[in-house]
């Protein structure tokens, strides 16, 4: 028995003994012969906010026939099911959301030596097992994209033991939703609930096939709603977080409210071990049904975009930009020729609402805009240097293949090119002018940006700046040369926090630097 368990056992035994008998303690010398009176107890006990425990048997009996098992088989590896680690180093894996099938899960017909992908001729490909659910009487099934991705053949097994070969109507990696169709009619199906009505603390139920165990039921509560996933490229999904026990094979199964309505599709877990650790995530059904309708109609998903890249508003930016608080999405890049560019939106603007819906954090913006159809109009409430403005823009179609360019390592301390001998500004930033080739590689306009050859101040280094970064703006003012950088930095007071818009690795980021941090430091 370990020490922790022993401690818990001792407390339990002591509590039990205290409840069973009155314990008389000796009175130390000098103490009063009468013990101190106990604190007063309220005359009336407050009414309980929670009473009884739920019984899910009726719910499971009613919805269970619409929950199915899915087998996906293919000669190519099923997406992230067998060797899904990709290029992620092993020591970083504990910090990542893991797909339910996991990299080490055993599967029937797994990879064998020889042949393409380790499979000899005639040997069946790997089989992944997941869950799904019927949404119509004529055989439409929802599951996860990653359950069927890469599959050559998909089989849907119903609770009544019937089995059907399924057609993949469409599949969307961004939302992790796939729509299947089986040739059957008169099937039981689930009713779609209102996922936007979910609140933390509400009971929810999951039904699926963890580890191949058909129709296993787990229950828990909603932990949070509108969760962003920073570890996967699914910025258009505001996940439902729950503490419902979810494991490999639950993937694609329904998350149900207490009325038996499906409110989400179980998709991911956060885990150090690859198994359930108390945190699971589901795709809201309003997102899933939007995707489903598009896949059934066109076979693909079109999302709206406004043509900006955003980040969380740093606390230091509140004072620097005269903001009331840190709510909103801080624009750090505006795509040339896009809707936002045409509407006059600039880096440094803070988007606070879209069509009246508040933006609390930068992660709120992509799913809200992505759910809107290309060509539709959106009204943005913006703060620019602390002053409110409004812009109406026409959304364009999201281009998911667009990739930003790479920042050239030019003039840094590790390079052979000579750098300026001394920084000409109080932040210790030694700037170096970019030529036309540099700007072309970076996707910058003519005269835009100045490279950093050296970072001399402790405040700038601690803020994360390093040689090779490109400074695009000081506050809201664009800079295009080392002299312009020095000039703009000289305009602020010695102790002012300075906001720099920096490009690195093809991405922009606002960085806050407070020079006072350098006092008394080398």
Architecture overview:
The chain is α+β, with helices and mostly antiparallel strands and 522 residues long. It contains ten helices and 27 strands. Strands 1-3-4-7-6-5 form a six-stranded antiparallel β-barrel. A six-stranded antiparallel barrel has the order 8-9-10-13-12-11. A hairpin with a 2-residue loop joins strand 19 and strand 20 (387-394). The model is unreliable at 1-32, 77-119, 402-421 and 517-522 (pLDDT under 50).
Summarize the structure.
This protein is an alpha+beta fold and 522 residues long. The chain has helices at residues 3-20, 57-63, 145-148, 285-298, 315-320, 339-342, 365-370, 436-442, 458-462, 482-489; strands spanning 67-73, 97-99, 127-134, 140-143, 153-157, 163-172, 177-181, 203-208, 216-227, 239-242, 254-256, 262-270, 280-284, 304-305, 308-312, 329-334, 350-354, 357-358, 377-384, 387-394, 396-397, 429-432, 450-455, 470-474, 477-478, 498-504, 507-513.
What are the key terms here?
alpha+beta; 522 residues; elongated; disordered C terminus; single chain; Pdz3 Domain; disordered N terminus; 15% helix; 3 domains; six-stranded antiparallel beta barrel; Thrombin, subunit H; six-stranded antiparallel barrel; 10 helices
Number of domains: 3
- What's the gyration radius in Å? 29 Å
Q: What is the β-strand count? A: 27
Strand order of the biggest β-sheet: 1-3-4-7-6-5
- Characterize the overall form: elongated
**The CATH topology of the largest domain:** Thrombin, subunit H
What is the second-level CATH architecture of the largest domain? Beta Barrel
**Average pLDDT level:** 77
Largest sheet: 6 strands, antiparallel, barrel
Task: List segments where confidence is low: pLDDT < 50 over at least 5 consecutive residues.
Answer: 1-32, 77-119, 402-421, 517-522
The CATH class assignment of the largest domain is Mainly Beta
Residues in helix, %: 10-25%
Number of helices: 10
